[in-house]
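Homework help board

Subject: predicted structure for assignment chain

Our instructor gave us this sequence and asked us to write out the predicted structure in token form, then describe one feature. I got the tokens but I'm not sure how to describe them. Can anyone check?
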Amino acid sequence: MFLKGANWDPQGRVALLSFSNSTTLGSIHFSSKPPSLDAHLLPVELPEISSLIVSRGIEKMAWDASGERLAISFKDGNEMYRGLVAVYDVRRSPLISLSLV
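My token output:
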């Protein structure tokens, strides 16, 4: 599995990573305040999408200006869901979690 992309939230508090051929994201969780770079990489599952589509991974991610919504597009997939863009509600308590809107 290779890192395909990374995307910071608008406030610069959370970075989400996408990997080749995977619909699971990685979240970089900083365990101490700046300037420390002490961080943990945690998985962020997208179970609603993984059960719906057969995809070769995430193509693009984009945050809204508030950092409360995240849009994700997927590569390939079956014909019915080709071009799908999923929108997620983002929560931080204290780790990031995503809920399909």
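Reply (TA_rk): Your tokens look well-formed. For the description, you could write something like this. The longest strand covers residues 85-92. That's the kind of observation they're looking for.
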